[in-house]
Amino acid sequence: MVQLLPSGLTASVAVAASSANLGPGFDSLGLALGLYDEVIVETVESGLVVQVEGEGAGQVPLTSDHLVVQGILRGLREAGVEAPGMVVRCRNAIPHQRGLGSSAAAVVGGLAVVNGLVAQLDRPGFSESQLIQLASEFEGHPDNAAAAVLGGAVVSWTESSGEGGAEQVAYAAASLRLHPDIHLFSAIPQLRSSTAETRALLPEQVSHRDARFNVSRAALLVVALTERPDLLLAATEDVLHQPQRGAAQPESAAFLQLLRRHGIAAVLSGAGPAVLALTTATQLPAAVLDSPEARVFDITKMPVGDAVRWNTGAAVPG
Asked: What are the residue boundaries of the GHMP kinase N-terminal domain, all occurrences included (predicted)?
């Protein structure tokens, strides 16, 4: 039986940005970044009010079509509760359409804030594995969602059962212990990109040789991220998606190659156009920062992101 939430409940959540693929780990490797969106929800007697500050303000829908609201509504259904009305406040720091997991953060934030609401009714919330499953169903792969839920570096995968219309897809992920000597630098342009459009640039089939190459590099990348950061440059080589997307994002492709020529393991962040650098150096070379290729990017040293955090009350957890 569905339980109606009383008016006057508040809950909040902070959820990290994420970078998927990390070069060869297409749709499987992910890394949370220390840039957070915040969501505060209050139950009211009726209606829906959506307020957005920061990234996306004036651009995203302020209706039930908003991804955060979609996540909340899905979470409420799964939890067996309903809200008579809601005020949803979003404070966004994650840039949209840059390859930093803003969509995954929105969905994970919406789902996770439900935990803060149902906790006030002494009802169980969603586990990490449930959050990964529910959030991944929105996009069909769990790399960004798993990183946003678990924080840090993750390996994700899918499992299918059944056939045809009865096919069921399970999404799962495991955390990696990121080597403490690895530093992250994000390079974020003003240019936006659609994941759907850049994914359409990828071929339906790849050669056995290219598949073998990426399998070896993805396996090596797990070693590099956890134990041997000296292998990062070789481990982040990719032939399956970054070269194909480069033509549509020439500035990102040029900056990525510049970083790699200077010995910095650089990758497209997700589908781009942001670039992520992974290095044991505490700063990027001056020759990179002062280059013409760097001028279109906001380059920032980026901490590793934490697991999603929710709270009862309007104070976003710190």
From this structure: 69-152
Per the annotation, where are the binding residues for ATP?
95-105
* pTM given for the model: 0.94
Alpha-carbon distance of 306 to 244, in angstroms, equals: 31
- β-pairing verdict for 85-92 and 81-82: unpaired
Q: State pLDDT tens for residues 261-318.
A: 999 999 999 989 999 999 999 999 999 999 999 999 999 999 999 999 999 987 777 6
- Please give the annotated binding residues, written as ranges: 95-105
